């Protein structure tokens, strides 16, 4: 059975933006409609970080070493994947979808996999490790279909 059947959901995500789509037709000629968008305001790390990295004493000498600052930008991206997983869980629990294809850059896809509830994981019928959040929907339809058929 083909993966992108009628009423299959498709999540297109990266660390800052997500599109929830649903296939309104069949797998042979998919037509995806956007049903929800999510966006996170995540400025670059330099705008979120402290003025300069902290320092600490190495011991009895006067030598001091720099401490690497937290990557707030990456933490926000990881948190966004958790937020998406929560949305998917609520929608799966409400029985809004039976099948879903996850499309995200490899990093976000990995983080999303870690965060997904089993109820959602059971509904995942395909994954595409690509960044497609800024592509037009018509192009997304073609790319996702081709990737799923090749898998």
- What is the number of domains? 1
Strand order of the largest sheet: 3-2-1-6-7
The number of helical runs is 5
Mean pLDDT: 84
Please provide the ordered H/E string of secondary-structure elements: EEEHEEHEHHEH
Share of helical residues? 25-40%
> Could you please say which CATH topology applies here?
Nucleotidyltransferase, domain 5
CATH architecture: 2-Layer Sandwich
Principal-axes geometry comes out as elongated
What is the tally of beta strands?
Answer: 7
How many whole angstroms does the radius of gyration measure?
A: 20 Å
Instruction: Classify the secondary structure makeup into a structural class.
Output: alpha/beta
Distance between the termini: 13 Å
Q: In this structure, how is the largest beta sheet organized?
A: 5 strands, mixed
CATH homologous superfamily name? eRF1 domain 2
Please report the first level of CATH classification, the CATH class.
Answer: Alpha Beta
Write a compact overview of the structure shown:
It contains 5 helices and 7 strands; from the N terminus they run βββαββαβααβα. The protein has 151 residues and is of the alpha/beta class. The strands form 2 sheets. It has a 5-stranded mixed sheet. Strands 4-5 form a two-stranded antiparallel sheet.
């Amino acid at each position: 059975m083909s993966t992108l059947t009628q009423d299959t959901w498709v999540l297109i995500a990266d660390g800052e933006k997500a599109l929830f789509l649903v296939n309104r037709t069949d797998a042979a000629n998919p037509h995806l409609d956007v049903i929800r968008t999510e966006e996170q305001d995540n400025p670059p790390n330099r705008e979120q970080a402290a003025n300069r990295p902290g320092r600490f004493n190495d011991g009895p000498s006067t030598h001091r070493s720099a401490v690497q600052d937290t990557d707030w930008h990456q933490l926000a991206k990881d948190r966004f994947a958790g937020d998406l997983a929560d949305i998917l869980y609520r929608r799966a629990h409400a029985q809004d979808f039976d099948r879903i294809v996850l499309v995200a850059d490899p990093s976000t896809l990995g983080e999303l996999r870690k965060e997904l509830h089993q109820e959602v994981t059971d509904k995942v019928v395909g994954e595409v490790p690509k960044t497609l959040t800024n592509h037009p929907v018509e192009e997304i339809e073609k790319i996702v279909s081709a990737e799923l058929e090749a898998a």
